[in-house]
Structure formats: structure tokens, C-alpha cells
């Protein structure tokens, strides 16, 4: 559903013109903001000699959920072929290990090594700093509100492996 554009009198500098209808769509604004924050976090990661996709994988594995490569691919929206290459890279770097799933010997469960846990802590600091800089434009409380709203939008849309 489209959001009503502000009138010319309400139009703030640096925001799209009132006669730019694409900006009337909340989904477009959400997509644009997501791309921009991803770009800024990716740049911050690169400056610290990290890769964003490595951070996403390691951070997803840092919790208690037992994730397979397929689960992880769904969680971070990576195609399965790219996921195999990423896990191979992380495993060769000593950050991730594969172990057989006792319930299904054909599948592997991924886990962080000690080096992987250390790396994700360092990456988390970089990600948090980049996010803080991106969201600094929001008045106090609005970032938390945005987080809650996005959480509500994503409820029941996460892969089952990470849900309660």
C-alpha cells in the first residue's frame, strides 16, 4: 500500500519531490534503506578486512540453533552453490566446522570454531558501528521502534530452523 506524499510545504530538503510517486511506496523505501545500510556495513567490513557475507554466516551460526548449509542459505538468502563455496572458505580459514547430523547422517550441522567465535565478535563491533552511523539520523526511540516493526513484519517468515 502506498504512503501519502507530504505536501510541498511539508517537503524536507534531501527527500524526494512530492511529484516522485515511487517514493510513495513503503516497500520501495524499505528496500532502498536495506540496500544502503547493507552497502555501508559492507564498506565498513571491507575497511576492517572482513567480508559482509562471512559476518552474516558467522553471526547466524553464533546462536544456539543447529543449522545445516541449507538452513543457513535460507537464513542469509544465499543460493546453495554460493553457500557451499562460502562454507568451504570459512572451513579452510578455520572459522567453521561441519559435523554430521546425528538425526540425518546425510546432512551436516555447521558450527563455529574458537577462531570463528573470536572473528564474529570483532565483526559484530564493526557491524554495530556502521549500523549506528546509518541510523544516527533517527530520533531517540525510533530505531528501536523500527526494529520492532520489522520484527513483526518478519514474524513467521524466518526459516523454521531459527524459530521457537
What does this structure look like?
It comes from Kitasatospora nipponensis. Keywords: DNA-binding, Transcription, Transcription regulation. This is MarR family transcriptional regulator. Pfam families: MarR_2 (PF12802). Residues 23-155 form the HTH marR-type domain. The chain has 164 residues and is mostly helical. It has a single domain, classed as Winged helix-like DNA-binding domain superfamily/Winged helix DNA-binding domain (Arc Repressor Mutant, subunit A), CATH 1.10.10.10. Helices cover 54% and strands 9% of the residues. The chain has 6 helices and 2 strands, in the order ααααββαα. The chain has helices at residues 26-47, 52-61, 69-76, 80-92, 114-135, 142-154, and strands at 96-101, 104-112. It has a two-stranded antiparallel ribbon with strand order 1-2. α1 (26-47) crosses α5 and α3 (69-76) crosses α4. It is elongated and about 60 Å long. The two termini are 30 Å apart. 18% of the residues are buried. Residues 5-9 have low confidence and may be disordered.
Keywords:
164 residues, mainly alpha, Arc Repressor Mutant, subunit A, two-stranded antiparallel ribbon, WH_DNA-bd_sf, MarR family transcriptional regulator, transcription, HTH_MarR-typ, DNA-binding
Topology:
Elements: H1 26-47, H2 52-61, H3 69-76, H4 80-92, E1 96-101, E2 104-112, H5 114-135, H6 142-154
Antiparallel strand pairs: 1-2
Helix pairs in contact: 1-5, 3-4
Q: Assign a percent range to the helix content.
A: 40-55%
Low-confidence stretches: 5-9
Secondary-structure arrangement, i.e. CATH architecture: Orthogonal Bundle
N-end to C-end Cα span: 30 Å
Lateral arrangement of strands in the main beta sheet: 1-2
CATH domain topology: Arc Repressor Mutant, subunit A
CATH class: Mainly Alpha
Question: What Rg, in angstroms, do the CA atoms define?
Answer: 19 Å
Derived from helix and strand composition plus strand pairing, the structural class reads mainly alpha
Mean pLDDT: 93
**β content, as a range?**
5-15%
CATH superfamily: Winged helix-like DNA-binding domain superfamily/Winged helix DNA-binding domain
How many helical stretches? 6
User: SSE order, as H and E?
Assistant: HHHHEEHH
* Largest sheet: number of strands, sense, barrel closure: 2 strands, antiparallel
Shape annotation: elongated
**Number of DSSP-assigned strands:** 2
How many domains, in number, for the residues? 1
Amino acid at each position: 500500500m502506498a504512503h501519502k506524499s507530504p505536501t510541498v510545504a511539508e517537503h524536507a530538503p534531501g527527500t524526494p519531490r512530492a511529484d516522485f510517486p515511487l517514493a510513495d511506496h513503503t516497500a520501495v523505501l524499505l528496500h532502498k534503506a536495506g540496500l544502503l545500510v547493507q552497502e555501508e556495513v559492507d564498506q565498513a567490513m571491507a575497511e576492517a578486512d572482513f567480508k559482509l557475507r562471512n559476518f552474516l554466516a558467522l553471526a547466524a551460526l553464533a546462536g544456539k540453533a543447529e543449522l545445516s548449509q541449507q538452513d543457513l542459505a535460507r537464513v542469509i538468502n544465499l543460493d546453495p552453490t554460493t553457500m557451499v563455496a562460502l562454507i568451504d572458505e570459512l572451513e579452510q580459514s578455520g572459522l567453521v566446522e561441519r559435523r554430521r547430523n546425528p538425526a540425518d547422517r546425510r546432512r551436516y550441522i555447521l558450527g563455529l570454531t574458537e577462531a570463528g567465535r573470536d572473528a564474529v565478535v570483532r565483526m559484530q563491533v564493526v557491524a554495530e558501528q556502521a549500523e549506528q552511523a546509518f541510523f544516527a539520523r533517527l530520533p531517540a526511540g525510533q530505531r528501536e521502534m523500527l526494529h520492532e516493526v520489522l520484527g513483526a513484519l518478519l514474524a513467521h517468515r524466518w526459516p523454521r530452523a531459527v524459530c521457537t
